[in-house]
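Incident log, structure service

09:12 report received: a user says their structure output differs between two submissions of the same chain.
09:20 pulled the input from the user's history:
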Amino acid sequence: MDATDRRILRALARRARLTNAELAEEVGLSPSPCWTRVKRLEQSGVIQGYHALLDQAALGLPETVFVEVMMERHDDEHLRRFEEAVAAMPEVLECWLVTGEYDYVLKAAVGGTADYERLLREKIYRLPGVRHTRTAFTLRCLKRVLSPVP
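09:34 re-ran on a clean worker, output below:
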């Protein structure tokens, strides 16, 4: 990957809906080599997809919470069942297996504290092997980078 590829990635990270002509002009290439580079970046897996960034508040989910989850057991079967169940929860935006005191960190979008309580009581606490949780409600997002480009 060279400096031109990085310029392409930065431009697409800012505005993924650029036309090939707009992208080529922004990065200083003619359209054909630009298209070839983008296709190569897609085929190699550097570009994994293009996504719409949705406004959670406009969807009725203005609150973001981070939930740390500690598991009772760490055998493969319990972890697999937990991960599959969390993957099926539409409220959960991200789930990370982490090091430290807790085993997982979940990022969830909720409509408020009552909505969060429902998520916790009706879904997370009912998952097999959940021992303890700790939650932080976010106040505001200061920075969001969806895809870092070195």
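09:41 both user submissions now match this output. Likely a transient worker issue. Closing.
09:42 reviewer note: The chain has five helices and four strands. The first strand starts at residue 63 and ends at 71.
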